[in-house]
Amino acid sequence: MAMTRIVLATAFALAPAFAADPAITKEDRAEAIRLMEASAAEYKEALKDVTPEQWKWKPAPDRWSVGEVAEHIALAEALLFGKVMEAVNALPNPDWETKTKDKLAFLARVMPNRQGKAKSPLEIEPKGNLTKEETFAIFDKGRVRINRFIQTTEVAWKEHTAEHPFPIFNTLNAQQWFLYIPWHTQRHLKQIAEVKATAGYPK
User: Fold this and answer.
1) DSSP notation for 127-151
2) Nearest CA to 139 among 152, 153, 122, 126?
3) How much is the pLDDT for 60?
4) What is the pLDDT of residue 115?
5) Regions in the chain scoring below 70 on pLDDT
6) Whether 187 contacts 111, CB under 8 Å
7) 169 vs 86: CA distance, rounded Å
8) CA-to-CA distance for 36 and 39, rounded, in angstroms?
9) Are the CB atoms for 145 and 81 separated by under 8 Å?
10) Is 162 helix (H, G, I), strand (E, B) or coil?
11) How far is CA 188 from CA 1, 24, 147, 168, in A?
């Protein structure tokens, strides 16, 4: 009986050492800032020389133009940051480690590489009536808020979660929702490259 008590006491004493730390680390913050800066630069570079004709040209009636993809990216970032804030404003999820295990690596693999496709929510489907300048203004305004958050937050972001509407993702923590933003941008920049490479794209 005494030995059992010693084993149990030792297990409880060691448990915190093996629990994952949900806090945002210096490395977490630096990597998130790097991804945000890289994706913003890639967005502007992909679109800077696009002419008004190229902006509106569609490869097919049921496919998006370069301008519509750019608009979707800008609109989606606000929606995704809303999920970040939904997560950080929620109570800590006691099961966050189990619920979000390995999902950061999964997102890093499938999102920027355009693996899998899904129907865009109606609220972030492009209308196709914005100019490049108007689209840039929406993108830049959203990035100011998002960048301010990542530069200043001290929230233990891994233990705060929000649900994704797609079952393949389900529960994501605030870190995963945040990195979803630049990876989603990079994902759709590949779509823009595909439109530009389509036969008939205006020169």
Assistant:
1) -S---HHHHHHHHHHHHHHHHHHHH
2) 126
3) 96
4) 77
5) 1-19, 116, 118-119
6) yes
7) 16
8) 5
9) yes
10) strand
11) 62, 27, 20, 19
Residue 16 has a CB neighbour count (10 Å cut-off) of 8
Report if residue 7 sits inside a domain: no
Residue 169 lies in a domain: yes
Q: What is the CATH number of the domain that holds 65?
A: 1.20.120.450
Count each helix (H run) and each strand (E run) in the chain, helices first: 8, 2
Residue 165 lies in a domain: yes
> What is the total count of domains within the chain?
1
pLDDT of residue 13: 39
Residue 16 lies in a domain: no
> What is the maximal distance between C-alpha atoms in the chain?
83
Task: Supply the range of the domain harboring residue 110.
Answer: 22-196
Identify the DSSP state of 115.
-
Cβ neighbours of residue 57 under 8 Å, at least 6 residues apart? 65, 66, 195, 200, 201, 202
